[in-house]
Predict the structure.
Amino acid sequence: TVGCVVVDSEGRCAAATSTGGLINKKVGRIGDSPLIGLGTYACDVCGVSCTGEGEAIIRGTLAREVAAVMEYKGLGLQEAVNYVIEERLDEGQAGLIAVSSKGEVACGFNTTGMFRGFATEDGFMEVGIW
Amino acid sequence: MGGWAIAVHGGAGVDPDLPLHRQDDAKKFLTRCLDLGIHALRSNHSAIDVVELVVRELENDPLFNSGRGSALTEDGTVEMEASIMDGPKRRCGAVSGLVTVKNPISLARLVMDKSPHSYLAFSGAEKFARQQGVELVSNDYFITEGNVELLQLAKEANGIWLDRRVPIETCCASVETPPLQMNGVPISVYTPE
């Protein structure tokens, strides 16, 4: 699975996710990536793209959950990501990237690693795996 | 208001024993995708255009599990899916079950912009793709040798795998066939849904 989340200089957020799914999956299986609010979500608060075990992400409604705890619990972006990864995944393994309309970037994952990269207008740039 | 920001991912399924040169390849590719997005943002492209542009780049390279280089189904074929969402008006588009569309994310964008729906799947999505004139390729284009080998290993282990890691305990499966595994745990973990 691959994904990208962006907030532009006008504060507009967007998210996109694309995947081939699981190795040896059944024909016709649908995972989390195409499901809005589960694998992909964007609103006027943040943009989120998820990856990992689709069945766990679906049950946790993961992407929308980040926006929801920001809106209703007033959490910041990274706090919201940490909360969702720690509290909403049960035994599942997954990760996600997110941006906020304030120009922040965040990620969280409970897997061995996640291929990821970030950049912000003030010059921050990071690429990581583990 | 803060400035622009961008994040990309290539999947959370990472082989713990990933060779260093493969790690370098992944980091170089992620950096290239970031540079593509940064250039577009500096040229004042909108967020929705930038996420589509970057995911197309990720789909075109076989390094990660999407587009070319997608994981294989139990039949050894590729079935792809994607979705895109624009925050300001929460517009969205999604596709599933694609077998010939070169860039699934761009078809998802067309579902959002050019159809009255949010989600098209399988033959309906392929028909919409032909109507919209997007680039189509044969299913073979998406299949890589590495993924054929991984599928073989998953079948021998009677497993469904999230990532390229080959769980050691299932590599030399014992004589009696173990219960169907999903990413190294019994499928029963997923029974709830």
